[in-house]
Amino acid sequence: MSLRTKFFEWISRGDPGDPNELVEVARVRIGRGPLTVAELCSAGFHATGDETFNIVTNTSSDYRVLVPRVEADRAMEHLKGIL
């Protein structure tokens, strides 16, 4: 294996990972988060959400919208229409 091949292998993204791993598709204000998750669930996605904690202001201010990796691209396209 050449040095160039090893270098490209080293900087590549590698294995795409577990298709059921939850990935963040959006970060919205905390009041909008549960509504966004409900909209994705009603559209057929397996969405969940999680509050984020801001250590500077010591409050929960944002909401992370999570979907399985296999549904992430479709979920982001769907979110463009509702956010």
Strands, helices and their partners?
Layout (H helix, E strand, L loop, with lengths): L2 H9 L10 E8 L3 H10 L5 E7 L4 E10 L3 H11 L1
Antiparallel strand pairs: 1-3, 2-3
Order of helices and strands: HEHEEH
Poorly predicted runs: none
Radius of gyration: 17 Å
Summed over residues and divided by their number, the pLDDT gives a mean of: 90
Instruction: Sum up the overall morphology in one term.
Output: extended
Strand pairing plus helix content: what structural class? alpha+beta
Distance between the termini: 48 Å
* Strand order across the largest sheet: 1-3-2
* Extended strand count: 3
Profile the largest sheet: 3 strands, antiparallel
Beta-sheet strand percentage?
Answer: 25-35%
Helix content: 25-40%
**In oligomeric terms, what are we looking at?**
single chain
Number of helices: 3
Question: Explain this structure to me?
Answer:
With about 80 residues, this protein is α+β, with helices and mostly antiparallel strands. It has a domain at about 25-80. The protein contains three helices and three strands, in the order αβαββα. It has helices at about 5-10, 35-40, 70-80; strands at about 20-30, 50-55, 60-70. The protein has a three-stranded antiparallel β-sheet with strand order 1-3-2. A hairpin with a 4-residue loop joins strand 2 and strand 3 (about 60-70). The longest helix is centred in the C-terminal third of the chain and has 11 residues, at about 70-80. The protein starts with a helix and ends with a helix.
